[in-house]
Amino acid sequence: MKKRLLLLVFLALIPLVEAVAATPPKAGASCSKLGLTSNYLGKKFTCIKNGKKLVWDSGKSIQSVPPKSQPSNPTPSPTASPISSPATPSNPVPTISQNPLLNFVANYGVKQKISSVTYAPPSVSSDEIEKCKVKQAGSDGTKSGFPAPTPLYKATGTVTWALIPVDFVDLKGEENFMKRAQSQMQAASEWADNTSEGKLKIEWKVHDKWIRLPGSSKEYAIPISDNKGFASLTQQSVWLKVVTEADKYFDFTGIQAVQFILPAGQTIIEYGIKGNNGYEVVRNYVTGEGTHIDFFSIPSTFNDELNSGRNYWSWWMYHYMVGLGVAKYGGSKIATPLHSYLIQGSTEGERELGGWIRFLVGWMSDDRVYCKTFSNLSKLEITLVPLVDNKTQGIKLAVFPITDKKALVLESRRVTKFSCTTNTERNGVLAYVYDSNLGHEEEYFKAISPSGRSVESYSCFASPTIDFLLHEGDKIIYEGITVEVLAHGDYDQVRVSRES
Question: Is residue 29 part of a domain?
Fold first, then answer.
């Protein structure tokens, strides 16, 4: 009887969760986090402080850039659409809610045990943080270790990205492209803001009409077999044609990156192309306003049912991180065990930038990192703040160098609105070993987890994986170091000890 009652209560709560996630911002209504932004019906709302309360402001129109001149064959101007409904396996567009920690309870079959955990400082003081900045053993330009890589463009501050739709005389764009673009733009902006702890903010300018490219669509065809990346002369030629035509109509003043989109369902460009100013052909292009483009993309059939619901926004951020010097994990076409846990490994899956990489690129400050070398480690208890929680001051990353080339790393993970889901609720502690001998397109992280777990599929276009996370009561041993999760709740309480 009690089980039946609990089930009825649970089912009754599901629409309430969805209602919260779908509630649009409204001027004067309460909001949850100072500085939080939300796009709705063509306006960008910001959470501000009014006296002692947090409320939405009156909103600012998302800027559409007036064309320098009209295309010879313009299509009707689109209008902005509300953000789509919560993610499902057939439509895994991220739900944009006011709470970045919101778990989509209805999607899970296996929930983790939750206890009351209050944040407490580590029981033993940290070593000097420099001892945990493990140096990269190789000299590859895209790096997995310290010193921090030199980015090709801004890693912090406010950057302005352009969204420009382009179509063809024989393949016209749909009337309202913002229906599929708006939530993607917002997700990219929110992911960057949350992941960087407010250090990187993306603002947008949108061209509100399709720009008609000269010639027929087949002149721009790039089959998936053209797998040379942007080193391909065909891909470089398409980029030049598209940006040159767009330059006639769009004001590129102040633009750092441009994301072009093609008509929905097109199959002319089968996978999509992307590039940054590390390539000469991009670096040498100067717009009519004297602007150099740092980063661009022309996605394929992403975000539609023809390509299993892949998203623009995570593809943008994956390749943006590469330009910040972050090493790809395992290669874009190799499904390694930890691949789907890292956005530098897969654009779909957890869509998370791990704590080590945040630390490396400066998006996680040194005071968020606990350091203890192997020789100084005996026994300690540490409370980890989840990576996604930017409100709580405290430790997010624990690093235990074992040698000058390897370190055991601990971080606290939570399912967020950016994540795909699995049958198991993936909230807990991720323990992994960083190996600085490895770098670009190699497995420089390896997860350490309990044995006997089954492989699970994601609700999106991601490689199936096991649940690598440590949950309450789980324990692992690596190189004489024992890691045990004592309690899991808002934070994770962990005991770490070394055999003497």
Answer: yes
Q: Residues near 497 by Cβ (< 8 Å), separated by ≥ 6? A: 377, 378, 379, 380, 481, 482
Q: Are residues 269 and 315 in the same domain?
A: yes
Structural domain ending residue among the three candidates 324, 341, 373:
324
9-46 burial, b at 16+ Cβ within 10 Å, e below that, comes to eeeeeeeebbeebeeebeeeeebeeeebbbbbbbbbbb
The answer to whether 264 touches 180, Cβ cutoff 8 Å, is yes
Count of structural domains within the chain: 3
Confidence class of residue 77 from pLDDT cuts 50, 70 and 90?
Answer: very low
Residues 483 and 357 in one domain: yes
CA distance 255 to 287: 10
Please indicate, yes or no, if residue 369 is contained in any of the structural domains: yes
Same domain for 296 and 194, yes or no, is yes
Residues 397 and 305 in one domain: no
Q: Is residue 453 part of a domain?
A: yes
Residue 176 burial (C-beta neighbours within 10 Å; 0-12, 13-18, 19+):
middle
Q: Check: CB of residue 453 under 8 Å from CB of residue 81.
A: no
* pTM score of the predicted model: 0.81
Whether residue 266 is found in the same domain as residue 287: yes
Q: Are residues 177 and 305 in the same domain?
A: yes
Residue 371 lies in a domain: yes
Reply yes or no on whether the pLDDT at 162 is more than 80: yes
Assess whether pLDDT exceeds 70 at residue 489. Answer: yes
Q: Is residue 41's pLDDT more than 60?
A: no
pLDDT grade for 86, boundaries at 50, 70 and 90 = very low
Over residues 12-41, mean pLDDT = 56
Please give the pLDDT value at position 126: 98
Q: What is the pLDDT of residue 34?
A: 77
Domain that holds residue 301: 157-324
